[in-house]
Each structure stands twice: as C-alpha cells, then as structure tokens.
Amino acid sequence: MARYCGSSCRLCRRENLKLFLKGDRCYSDKCAFERRPYAPGQHGQRRGGKYSDYRTQLREKQKVKRIYGVLEKQFRGYYYRADQAKGITGVNLLMSLEARLDNVVYRMGFASSRTQARQLVRHGHFLVNDRKVNIPSYQVKPGDVIKVHAESQKVHQIVDAMETVLRRGIPNWVEVNKSDFSGTLKSLPNREDLTMPIQEQLIVELYSK
Questions:
Q1: What is the pLDDT along the chain (209 residues), one digit of tens a residue?
Q2: CA 49 to chain centre
Q3: Which residue in 1, 53, 122, 136 has the most C-beta neighbors within 10 A?
Q4: Phi, psi torsion values for 115, nearest 5 degrees
Q5: Could you tell me if residue 77 is inside a domain?
Q6: How far is the CA of 133 from the CAs of 115, 180, 185, in angstroms?
Q7: Separation between Cα atoms, residue 154 and residue 22, nearest integer Å
Q8: How far apart are CA 34 and CA 141, in angstroms?
Q9: Is the dihedral of CA 192, 197, 202, 207 positive or negative?
Q10: What's the burial of 205, exposed, middle or buried (CB within 10 Å: 0-12/13-18/19+)?
C-alpha cells in the first residue's frame, strides 16, 4: 500500500499551519513549525506573492489530505461518495473523514496522532463492537463502541497517549471510559465542532471543474 514516508514537519511548514502530525512533540518547543515557520526548500523563505484560485483550492485539498493522512486516490473516493450523498458535499466529506476508525481512535485519546492511531489499528489493537477491526478507513457509526484489546491495554503508546490527551482535549461527540479502555462514538460532529481552519468549499470547487 502506498503511504507517505517523508518528514511530517515538512508538511506542516508547506501548508503554513500546524497540522499536529507528530502528537505530543507538536506541543513542545521541539516543533519544527515553531522554529522554522516558513515553507520548506531552498527558496522557502522567499515564497509568497499572489496565489491563483486554482492554487488556493489545491492547497486546501492538500491540507485536508495531510490532516487525515489520506492519499489522493482514496481522498477522491471520499469526495465522490460525499457528492452523491444527501446534504452539503463539503460537510459530507469531512464527516466521512471524521468517521474513519483511525481518526476516532485519535479523537478518543488512545493514540497521540492519527499516524500512530493508523499503525495501532493496523496491528489489531482495537475492537469495534467486540469484533477486531484492523482497517484504518473502517467507517465508525454513531453508537459503535471502540475498545482496546485486553492484551493491548499495556502497550506503552496507548498508555502514554491516554495520559497526555488532556493537552488537546477529548471532543464532546465521543465518550471515553478510561477504566476499561473503551469509548463510544455518540454522534458525528457538527461542522462548527471542527476547529481546524478548513474551507471545504474550496475542495468542492476544485473537484467540480
């Protein structure tokens, strides 16, 4: 399976936005975006000027892809399904991304980043409604219960993430029971609950051309 293997901090610098791709490190003074808040590359500090509409739309798409750790082919599939569903296409797209199992695991605080959540899911550390699921893109539905496998409750990445989750907080659309390492997706978030600066309409305009 194709995946991005480059520097995560480089992606934040390219989008000129802290994407919180490296978990707890992003909140420390070691964060590369804080130390070098300009685009990567030899001419990064000199980039600027007027952006075309296409470039603005493209950068917005790239930003959302990188936040959720999705590559182009899969992201395009999310868009087409969102476009065919009832409702606002851009909001449907974000809800589909938020419902990914790796994202829900991250939101519940069982992982310090979506990248780590994706790896933990791949390794079979989680149960959905008491069934082991190792597909990061699995779509979690409201009411589904996510639980850490009994044999995985001592995995230090999970334990450390649960201890530091208060730094970023647990959203109100999930409910977490730390005593038994479980959580419930109460509902999908409302659009206003997503605080990252995302302009999903620009993505719709890009794909509508």
A1: 456 555 665 565 566 566 666 555 555 555 655 556 656 654 455 555 567 889 889 989 998 998 898 999 999 999 999 999 999 999 999 999 999 999 999 999 999 889 999 999 999 999 999 999 999 999 999 999 999 999 999 999 999 989 888 777 899 999 999 999 999 999 999 999 998 888 999 999 999 87
A2: 30
A3: 136
A4: -65, -45
A5: no
A6: 17, 18, 16
A7: 21
A8: 36
A9: negative
A10: middle
What values do phi and psi take at 117, rounded to 5? -60, -40
| 113 within some domain | yes
User: Residue 130's domain spans which residues?
Assistant: 100-185
- Count of structural domains within the chain: 1
Question: Which residues are CB-neighbours of 143 under 8 A, at least 6 positions away?
Answer: 184, 185, 186
**Residue 59 belongs to some domain of the structure:** no
